[in-house]
Write a structure and sequence with these properties.
Enzyme class: oxidoreductase
Pfam families: G6PD_C (PF02781), G6PD_N (PF00479)
Helix content: 25-40%
Protein name: Glucose-6-phosphate 1-dehydrogenase
Structural class: alpha/beta
CATH architecture of the largest domain: 2-Layer Sandwich
EC number: 1.1.1.49
CATH superfamily of the largest domain: Dihydrodipicolinate Reductase, domain 2
Radius of gyration: 24 Å
Distance between the termini: 27 Å
Family: Belongs to the glucose-6-phosphate dehydrogenase family.
């Protein structure tokens, strides 16, 4: 199988915060890989912008070092040498006037203009205002904004209103890198390009859905940020909400940005309020090799959760009565992200007790070893009667697609190319962000009012014992967390 690489049009991309970690670790290495793949025209410009005073040559040296480290190439690789010719740098004062005239002077009238805000959300408004005042917020320009997009409904609305003063909604790309993952996009392909699953994709046949995003790392090094956010703001309100929407949404009339996002918005608006008894919050404790959450954030009184598990219900015809179980946490047993759709057992078994059929299960692995696994019942080989055994029909992208499955584009690569194309399908719309916060805010408010501490759990475990009981009381079990 040969993948098609479709070049994008000539563009000028400005990366605000170009000296930061995200730019060096993800954005610039991703752009290099797209350049090597032949997707970026050699006439394009990539302009770094930040407070640091440096010239083009110094910026190129720093980017070269980052690409060598994160993209696995040698410093003298001719492809890297060629890519660095696209780069330039302007020292910018985000809240003042320094550097803006020079930046405007570098932008070409005949190229697509894109501006990546890889900075703190507090600077979004200042950047948007200065782009507009210096004539760079015209109709064909677009801006990319990173999460967190607000920390509650009020701040999200304020950010939306600020950006709307200078850019139309179809110019604003709210990026969630989870939506750029190959397997996440395959959720839509599996559902809507195959008649096999869609007739069964409802409460009549699905017993429950589990969405798990587990990490082995703690918050050391970013504790000051994380302690103000917690698992619900850092993961549930955005990444996991997007996965939930893609699983639960109705078929859009077309694979079109607003058609897809309209259906996702309907799911969020159909979410029932979550009862306190259906939520478990946790904080990891330390072990011999590392500190506890409280150690990592430097606050012995912190009530911020590093783990959350919850039972969510959707009030619509398709999903009424089918629970969705979400869990995510730091310092867990393994790094894994997956969605498991457990179907109901057959209504009647014609086999004896030793061969009772088990429920079918479709597991979509997002990371690591991206792929899908469908568990079905078959007869156990050999004589001795009809004995049933559950076996997996396992498909990993690496095996099924060969070299292409092993070298899939990073999520940021795909999403940035979509920005240049002007395709907003995999980006969040303003009303979608606000609806997600409207559902999340009451949950957070109830925690703050109760002042309850999160449940402790051992680093390297599956999470708090209370999370196990959340499932056990429904006569269900969490899937094992394993890589």
């Amino acid at each position: 199988m040969v993948s098609r690489v479709i070049p994008v049009d000539d563009f000028d991309l400005v990366i605000f915060g170009a000296t930061g970690d995200l730019a060096h670790r993800k954005i610039l290495p991703g752009l290099f890989r797209r350049f090597v793949a032949g997707q970026i025209p050699e006439t394009s410009q990539i302009i770094g912008a930040a407070r640091t005073q440096q010239d083009d040559a110094q910026f190129r040296d720093a980017v070269a070092a980052a690409i060598v480290e994160h993209a696995g190439v040698k410093k003298n690789d001719p492809r890297l040498v060629q890519f660095l010719k696209l780069l330039g740098y302007v020292a910018i004062d985000a809240t003042g006037q320094g550097g803006w005239k020079e930046l405007a002077g570098r932008m070409r009238a005949d190229a697509i203009h894109a501006f990546y805000f890889s900075v703190a959300p507090s600077l979004f408004g200042d950047l948007a205002e200065r782009l507009a005042s210096h004539g760079m917020a015209h109709g064909d320009s677009r801006i990319v904004v990173e999460k967190p997009f607000g920390r509650d409904l009020a701040s999200a609305r304020a950010l939306n209103q600020t950006l709307a003063q200078h850019f139309d909604e179809d110019q604003v790309y709210r990026i969630d890198h989870y939506l750029g993952k190959e397997t996440v996009q395959n959720l839509m392909a599996v559902r809507f390009a195959n008649i096999l699953f869609e007739p069964l994709w409802n409460a009549q046949y699905v017993d429950h859905v589990q969405i798990t995003v587990a990490e082995t790392v703690g918050v050391v090094g970013r504790g000051s940020y994380y302690d103000k956010s917690g698992a619900i703001r850092d993961m549930v309100q955005n990444h996991m909400m997007q996965l939930l929407c893609l699983i639960a949404m109705e078929p859009p009339y077309h694979f079109d940005p607003d058609a897809v996002r309209d259906e996702k918005l309907k799911v969020i608006r159909a979410l029932e309020p979550v009862e306190p008894a259906d939520i478990v919050r946790g904080q990891y404790e330390g072990d011999d090799g590392a500190g506890s959450y409280l150690d990592d954030v430097g606050d012995p009184d912190s009530r911020t959760e590093s783990y959350i598990a919850m039972k969510v219900r959707i009030s619509n015809w398709r999903w009424q009565g089918t629970p969705f179980y979400l869990r995510t946490g730091k310092r867990l047993r393994a790094r894994t992200s997956e969605i498991a759709i457990t179907f109901k057992e057959p209504p009647h078994s014609i086999f004896d007790d030793t061969g009772a059929p088990k429920a079918n299960e479709l597991v979509i692995r997002l990371q690591p070893n991206e792929g899908m696994n469908l568990k079905v019942m078959i007869k156990e080989p050999g004589p001795g009667g009809m004995r049933l055994v559950q076996v997996p029909l396992d498909m990993s992208f690496a095996d099924a697609l060969g070299a292409e499955g092993q070298d899939m584009p990073d999520a940021y690569e795909r999403l940035i190319m979509d920005v240049i194309r002007g395709n907003q399908t995999l980006f969040m719309r303003g009303d979608e962000v606000e609806a997600a916060w409207a559902w999340t805010d009451p949950i957070i408010d109830s925690w703050e009012d109760s002042k309850r501490r999160p449940e402790p759990y051992d680093a390297g475990s599956s999470g708090p014992e209370e999370a196990l009981r959340l499932m056990h009381r429904d006569n269900r079990r969490w899937r094992e967390i394993r890589a």
